Amino acid sequence: MIYDIIVVGGSIAGLHFATLMKMQGRKVLVLEAKAHIERKICGEYLCPKGVHLLQKRKSDHLLKDFEPIFGMKLVSGRGRLVESYFPETEQKNYGVSVNRKILEERMLAHYLSYNGEISMGKQVTSIDTSMDIVKVVAGEREYRGRFIVGADGRMSRVAKFFGVDTNQKTKRVAIHSYVSPKKTLDRLGQMHLFEDGAYIGVNPIDVQESNISLVCDSELLKGKRDPRDILNEYIQKSEDLRGQFGELPQETHVWTVFPIQSEVKCVASKKFALIGDAGGFVDPLTGEGMYNAFLTAEILAESILENGRAFDLSDASSKYIKLKKMQTDEKRRLNIFFQWFIRRPILVESLAILLSWSQRRANSFIGIIGNVYRPLEGLTKMIL
Ligand SMILES: Cc1cc2nc3c(=O)[nH]c(=O)nc-3n(C[C@H](O)[C@H](O)[C@H](O)COP(=O)(O)OP(=O)(O)OC[C@H]3O[C@@H](n4cnc5c(N)ncnc54)[C@H](O)[C@@H]3O)c2cc1C
Hints:
The protein is an alpha+beta fold.
C-alpha cells in the first residue's frame, strides 16, 4: 500500500491534519511514537481564536465540558494587577481550559470515525527519499508514501532528517506542575511576570486543579537544584500567587521541559512539510502553541486539497510556505519582541500602568494575545 501522505506525530497538529485529509478521502497514515495518549506538558489554555477555529469546523464537541477562560489577569513584577477580558467581535470571545489527554483522545476518536489509520507505540527512526516514493521506518515496519508531514513537535526528527536548520538556542526552561488552589479561582488565565524576566502562567482547569508553568533561566537549575523548590520560590515571591497556592506540598510532582523555543528556517519542500511545533515555536508566554498547531494543519490541508490529486506536491508546499508566512509571521515577530520586552522590568511596569488606566485598552491588548485581533489591528485599538 502506498499512502498519499504519511504523518509523523499523532498529537494536535498531526491528528487535526490527518482528519482533514481523511474527510476528503485521502489515503493517510499517522505514525505516533507513544503507545497511549498521555497528558502532555502544556499550559492547556486554548486561545479564543483556537475555539473559533474548531467551532467553524463543527468540531466543538472536542471541547465539550471544558471550562471557559474569559480573559487574563496580568501581574507585573512590582505586583501591579491588570484584569482584562477578551473583546467582543463576531468570533468567540472566550478561550478554554483543556485537559490535553482528554482533548487528544477525542481527536483520535474523531479521526478513527473517518476510518483513519494510525500506528501507535513505534518511533519513526528513518526516512528514505532516494526514490519517488518515500519510505518511513517505525519499529520493525516500513511504510511507503508520496509525501511526509512532520507533526512531531519541537525536536522534530522529520526536520532533522530533511536537514532543516532548527535554531534551538535558548537558555530558558519550563517547570510545570498541576496544583490545588486554596480557593476557587476566577475564570481568567493568569500571567505573573517577575523582574528577572521569569514568568508564571496559571490556568484554572477546574475548581480542584490549576495548571501552572514557570519559565525561567536554565542557570537556576545548576547544582542539581530541585525544580520544585525553584517553582515554590517564585510562588512565594508573589503575594498574589502565595495567596492562591501557599507553599507547594513536598509530594508535588513537577516536570522540566527544555528547549522551549525552536526557530525553523524551512517549513516545506518537495517531499515534506512541517506543521505545529515542528514548524517553529516561540516560548509559551502567549499560550498559542495549540492554536498554531490547528492553524498550520488547516493551512497545509488547504494547500494540498487545492492542488487537486496531483502526484507531485511541490506546488502545495510552496503555497503552504506562503500562506503560513502570511497568517503567522506578524504574531510570531510580536512574540519574539515580547520575549525581549518582559526582560525589561521598567517597560513591563509602564505597560501595566498604561493598561490599568483603561479597561478598553487592557481588553484590546489581551485581544492581541488571544488572537482575537491581529497585532496591528489590536495596537490601533489600544492607541485610539
Ligand atoms: C511549558 C509549556 C506550556 C505551554 N502552554 C501552552 C498553552 O497554555 N497553550 C497552548 O496553546 N500551547 C501551550 N504550549 C505549547 C503546546 O504544548 C504545543 O505548541 C503543542 O503541543 C504543539 O502540538 P504539536 O501537535 O505540534 O506537537 P506535540 O504536542 O509536541 O506532539 C508531537 C507528537 O509527535 C510524537 N513524536 C515525536 N517524535 C516522533 C517520532 N520520531 N515518531 C513518531 N512520533 C513522534 C510525540 O510523541 C507527540 O505525540 C506550552 C508548551 C510548554 C512547553
